[in-house]
Every structure is written in C-alpha cells, then in structure tokens.
Design goal:
Elements lengths: L10 H20 L3 H4 L4 E5 L3 H12 L4 H15 L19 E7 L5 E7 L5 H11 L4 E3 H10 L11 H12 L10 E3 L6 E3 L12 H7 L15 E6 L5 E7 L20 E4 L3 E7 L1 H4 L4 H10 L4 H15 L5 E7 L4 E6 L3 E6 L7 E5 L2
Parallel strand pairs: 3-4
Antiparallel strand pairs: 1-7, 1-13, 2-3, 2-8, 5-6, 7-8, 9-10, 10-11, 11-12, 13-14
Helix pairs in contact: 3-4, 4-5, 5-6, 10-11
EC number: 3.4.19.5
GO biological process, one term: proteolysis
GO molecular function: beta-aspartyl-peptidase activity; N4-(beta-N-acetylglucosaminyl)-L-asparaginase activity
C-alpha cells in the first residue's frame, strides 16, 4: 500500500525556486516587468520610410539597444537614399556638392554625437555615433568631421554626388540659379558672386532689381518634401530605454557651409527616458530657432499629452513664421505618439508589438 506524506519544501528546493525567480524579481524591481513588454519595443519615424523602420524594428526586437536600432534604421535610409534627401547622392548645394548632417542621442545618459556639413563620408549617422562614443564633444563639422570619421574606420574619402544630383544642379544653373537662399543681395551675372544691396562698390554688369526680387523670393518655392527633408527616428527598446537619431543631406541648393537643424540637439530630435522623445522635419533654418523637440519633451514632462505638446511646439513657430513648413512627432515613455504639422501634410511611421508591419499615420495641417 502506498504511503502518503504531506510535502514540505526543503531548504534546497526553496533555494532553487528562488534562483529561478530571480530574473523576474529583478525585472519588477527595475520597472521592466511584463506590462512594459506589451508596449515595447517601439519605433517611430518621420515619413513613410518603411524599410528604415523595419530595419530598426528587427534590430531592437532581437534585443539590441535603442541606440543600436536608431543607428541601423537611419543607416538603412542613407543607403536607400530615402526621397533623395537622406544619404549621399542628393540635395546639391550651390557648388553642386552633397554634404551630410546627422545626430544620435541616448535618452538615458543624455550623450549626443553629431556631424554637420560633412564631406566625403557617406555614413552620416555612424559618424555621429563615433563622435558620441570616442570624443568628449557633441558636434564635429566640415572636412574635419570627415577626417575624424575616416580615422575611426569609416570608408572614405568618397564622392557624395550622383548622376541625379549633378543633373539637378546643371538644370538649376541653366535656370539662372533660381530659386536660392540668398536675400538682400545683388548678383553679378546670373549666379553670383553676390554683393549686399547697400554695397557702395557695385561692379559693372550688376543685374537689375528684377533679378534681386527673384533671388529673394518666397521660402515656399525653396522648401518642399523632395528638396528639404530629414529622417528623424525615435526608438524605445525592450528595457524602456529611449534614443533618437536624424540624418539628412540638407536643403537643395543651400549656400555652401549651411547647417540645418538635423544635427542640432533639441531641434531635429530630443530624448529623455524619464519623459519621452520627439522627432522633427521641415524647414530647419526656421525650426532650429525654436528648439521644437526640446519644447515637446519639456511640455510632456510637465504633464502635457503628446498631441497637445506637438501642437503647442508647432504653433509657437507658426505665430512668428506663418509661411514656414514643418512638423514634429511626439512620443511619451508609455509609447503614446502623436504628430502636428504646418504648411504640409505629415506622414509618420510606427512599428509596435501589436502591429504585423509598419503602420503609417497621416496628420493634416
């Protein structure tokens, strides 16, 4: 006959059970329990750059950090030359050259790396990360940024122009270099050199006032979806850590040396894992004067919902510059996201655990 005896856990079995439960205990203690796994990871990006978002999602969903995912996602967009506004081969400046701006920010440590007006190196976002990893600086610019990136192992020097960008530049020259970003100047011949309108020594052959008016035309003729754009991406990883990154080749036919808001922390992007993140796109020369992404994150810190925070940041700019074109996307640490735009219709992309693939959201101005 079988003998029944009540089971009481031995000290050894209790110890083994405790060991098995340790990972769950630590997750709960750190605030990374099961509840967050329903929301994270999360990838949010400006525009329907679907493959870039998919690459970022695959990276973060397999356990890599938010910073890793941002870099891989933006790098994919550079390789694909998204809309001709990201990576090499697009947006020639007045000299016909393509240069790159990029930024990456870790919302946990608040470390930032950025490059601006970078020549000869095609990997903008990777160069930005190298600045963050291997310097005490935040931003490197121009040929010295290129030299640093190459010294850290990136390929180069490389010609960043393409047949498309060269053809676009040639047509622009044939159109007397119109439209452009000059103002209050008089050109000699049709494409410069330029002199201030109040110059006392105007050279012979100076163009008429009609040419001057054309040169100083509306910003709307110079800023548009395919001439002035950025990928700006925010990622929340499985541990709830937040990072943001941007990459752009800037404004088409910009004055050489121009830097937009792409590499400016707080303007094109900002992240704080205690609050959330923001991504921006549009007319960087105007938007960088307001640091809209810093404004969005700080508004959310004070309790404002993402939608209202985004609308507030855009409205601050529109009150001063009613003709500006731009947009922001806000996402809080709970994964709630919303966008706001002015002057154009914004489309932004999201991938979350409850989606089978990337979903594109449309925001009307």
């Amino acid at each position: 006959m079988a003998f029944y005896r009540p089971w009481f856990p031995s000290p050894r079995s209790q110890f083994l059970e405790y060991i098995l439960l340790l990972p769950l205990i630590f997750q709960v203690m750190l605030g990374h329990g099961v509840v967050k796994s329903e929301k994270y990871p999360l990838v949010v990006s400006t525009w329907p750059f679907l493959e870039a978002v998919r690459v970022a999602w695959r990276t973060v969903d397999t356990g890599f950090s938010a910073v890793d995912a941002v870099v891989e996602g933006c790098s994919a967009c550079e390789e694909l030359r998204c809309d001709g506004t990201v990576g090499p081969g697009g947006s020639p400046d007045e000299n016909g050259e393509t240069t790159l701006d990029a930024l990456v920010m870790d919302g946990v440590t608040m470390d930032v790396g950025a490059v601006a007006a970078m020549r000869y190196v095609k990997d903008g976002i990777k160069a930005a990360r190298l600045v963050m990893q291997h310097t005490e600086h935040t931003l490197l610019v121009g040929e010295q940024a290129s030299a640093f990136a190459i010294s850290m192992g990136l390929s180069g020097p490389t010609n960043l122009s393409s047949s498309e960008s060269k053809e676009r530049w040639t047509k622009w020259k044939e159109n007397h270099c119109q439209p452009n970003f000059r103002k209050n100047v008089v050109p000699i011949n049709s494409c410069g050199p330029y002199h201030p309108t109040n110059s006392l020594e105007l050279h012979e052959g100076t163009c008429s006032n009609t040419a001057l008016l054309e040169t100083a035309g509306s910003r709307l003729s110079r800023v548009g979806l395919h001439s002035h754009d950025t990928i700006s991406m925010a990622v929340i990883d499985k541990m709830g850590r937040i990072a943001v990154g941007t990459s752009t080749n800037g404004a088409t036919f910009k004055i050489p040396g121009r830097v937009g808001d792409g590499p400016i922390v707080g303007s094109s992007a900002y992240a704080d894992d205690e609050v959330g993140a923001c991504c921006a796109t549009g007319d960087g020369d105007i938007m960088m004067r307001f640091l809209p992404c810093y404004q969005v994150v700080e508004s959310m810190r004070l309790g404002m919902e993402p939608k209202l925070a985004a609308q507030d940041a855009i409205s601050r700019i529109a009150r001063k510059f009613p003709d500006f074109v731009g947009a922001v996307v806000a996402v809080n640490k709970e994964g709630v996201h919303a966008g706001s735009c002015h002057g154009w219709t914004l489309k932004y992309s999201v991938r979350s655990p409850d989606m089978a693939d990337v979903h594109v959201f449309t925001v009307l101005p």
